[in-house]
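name: query_chain
kind: protein
chains: 1
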Amino acid sequence: MKMDIWSVIPKRFRAKGIGVSLTIFVRALLNFVGLAALLPILYLILDSESIHSNTTLNTIYQTLGFQSDHHFVIAVAVVVITFIVIKNIINIYLYRVERDYIYLLYRNLSRRLFISYFGEGLQFVKRENSAVLSRNVNVVCYTFITGILRPIATLASELLLLLMIFLSIAIYSPLGALLAVVVFIPVAWLYFSIMRYRLDRYGNIENEAQRRKYRDVIETFRGYADIEINNAFGHQLSRFDQELDTIIRVGRKNATISMLPNNLTEIGLAVGMALLLIFGAGADSAEIKLLFGVFAVAGLRLMPSARNIMSAWSSLRYNHYTIDILKTVKADKEDRTNSVAEKISITRDIELRNISFRFDNGSSDTLRDLSLTINKGEKVGINGESGVGKTTLLNILLGLYTPTEGGVYIDGKLLDNELRRKWQNSIGYVSQSTFLADNTILANIALGCDEEAVDMERIERVVKAASLSEFVASLPKGINTRIGECGALLSGGQRQRIGIARALYKQADILFFDEATSSLDSATKQSINNAIEHLSESNKELTIVVVAHRESSLNYCDRIITLKK
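structure:
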């Protein structure tokens, strides 16, 4: 597990992690010294004559010139309390160092996983379940921090403290140390041997159930209309209940397990003290009282330490699945957040040379040895039967898919990874189901732009060009009206017009439309087609590529390319 965790932690956090590990050692040392500081008070409580009989106490008494035992006791108490207070203040500061490191690491891991998933490309996003990806980014990273790293810090600190206490007891009383071993080692061994595999299994079961539950909830709300019309909510709810029951069942077992360390260590302490009384019967009263007191104080600190160690170990086993998920992060995807603003200006054409494409899990090519040229300023239609590869071809042109063979050339330059971002900055895209965020019309048109950076004059122009002016003017908050999740408060035509306005706001040299009117009624479809044709007529330099199932939807195109299987 150690190497797995180390591989998950980004390189720039590893050196600092070593420094944080030192704070764990210092905290353990401070806790030990704090416990040792109580021993003088214990001496004074159990043996009032120890002020003078104990060599160390008597030396301090004489050196500092005390004349009263009572004043000496008060001074010892004040010193011990002052030390404990200072020790705890330092402990809090060191804990804050550990806490800040852990949560900065959480931020980095969550962000890296988000970037890694996005960087895997369109094929990966379509293949995986978005609810699962969302949960991994939002929940799993946090669980790794709280269920793996924090328990590791606890485990390290408590083990160090436990070792220091044990060695101190061994030096003072070998019998007491032997008694601690006899009592606590069997308890710990029993717990670890019984719970080890159960915790692994419970953690995996809960993770899978949480993923399915997360997916069911998102799918239910996303498909509300279909689920309601088909009376399918009962089925969805039944699935939800099954996953919930699994989570609760596993949670109950884990809750019971989490109680065991406290119960077992308490029993162990009671057994140890009882054995000490039994075997100490008839021994020197003062000595046995002092040994009993030392064991009691040490035991009271050993008990929470042993409990924390077992609880931390349980958390590590239960949440081990998070490591496997985070190991999928690919470091080479980390730098995809660069904001390249540069564009490519098309002066001649877009050329596809002997393009073939096969999906990662496909058994045959979707496109094979396809070549075509799209000239600047052309209106080109692409049609064909369903499944022939129209959308795949468009995704290749958009730079979202990389051809298995052949290449895309922009004015003779190969569309490679270096050129892709600049190319995508130069194009506009309107899909069959335009992506709309749960935000305002303004934010959706100027997608990806900070509000203060939006060019409002350009917004007015593109709203007019996309025939949205009348609709926007009718809204109480105009362009600042929120449109709901996925544009739920808009009609199909309005959603598509916002998509057109977005493409125009980019000042794109080329516009791509993927079945942009296929889900609209005839009147709205004609209206959108007229808007696209008007755009082309008003800007002869604008290149337009339209994918449509029906050839009749492409009447305004200069030429139509028909794909066949």
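note: Residues 136 and 325 are 8 Å apart (CA to CA).
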